[in-house]
Amino acid sequence: MSVLEVKDLHVTVEGKEILKGVNLKMSTGEIHAIMGPNGTGKSTLSSTIMGDPAYKITKGDILLNGKSIIDLPVDERARMGLFLAMQYPQEIPGVTNAEFVKSAINARRPKDDPIPLMDFIKRLDETLETLDMSEEMADRYLNEGFSGGEKKRNEIMQMMMIRPEFAILDEIDSGLDIDALKVVSRGVNQMRGDNFGSLIITHYQRLLNYIVPDYVHVMMDGQLVKTGGPDLAIRLEKEGYAKLRDELGLDIKLVDENA
């Protein structure tokens, strides 16, 4: 079992404090969801965990299996088992999907033990079939000319191929129609098990109809203010965030449409 822990995390972006003492602990075998209004720090948390240098940690720590990772670069965190499916995946001309994924898999293996070619092809074919992706997608340049939905499926394809210990999915449901949402959810659910954990960041409960989380956390004003089970997400969908804010006695202004 692997453990990812965020301890009293304070983060600034361009001199403005966004995260104000986030505490979160999750293990493989668990699916955690973070919900919250716009501008509360959800994407800041995901980017900070992955090591984006634009986000400055002013206090606190991030531990992976008890080891601090806050001084490690992004590539080293990825080798240790972290994966981030970005809200806005980048296009990388000249590098095919297959080349990128194979390199990422081998980066986590001993240098003298790359994945055998036939094993890679078999795993890739199975993954593409799961996600209703054509074989030609593997030969296209990374995200170049992809629709929004194709980019999101591509992120899940990478996740399934690389097999990280922890996958952070930052608004993976953004812009997806219901069919694409079901396909993406199928990929995540197929990964569920003792060797995989996921932190899902979303605004809407509908994704959690298909990927049922073990824990739901609510973020407001840079902090996790409430934790519950799947029923908490259903409640937020019905009542919005303002009612919960008032119940908790929080003196903050919400900019989310549900407030």
Description:
The protein is built from nine helices and twelve strands. It has helices at residues 42-50, 74-79, 97-107, 117-130, 148-162, 178-191, 206-210, 230-239, 241-248; strands at residues 3-13, 16-27, 31-35, 56-64, 67-68, 82-85, 92-96, 141-142, 166-170, 197-201, 215-220, 223-228. The protein has a six-stranded mixed sheet with strand order 6-9-10-3-11-12, with helices on both faces. Helix 3 packs parallel to helix 5 (148-162) and helix 5 packs parallel to helix 6.
In short:
The chain has 259 residues and is of the alpha/beta class. It contains nine helices and twelve strands.
List the helices and strands and how they pair.
Elements: E1 3-13, E2 16-27, E3 31-35, H1 42-50, E4 56-64, E5 67-68, H2 74-79, E6 82-85, E7 92-96, H3 97-107, H4 117-130, E8 141-142, H5 148-162, E9 166-170, H6 178-191, E10 197-201, H7 206-210, E11 215-220, E12 223-228, H8 230-239, H9 241-248
Helix pairs in contact: 3-5, 5-6
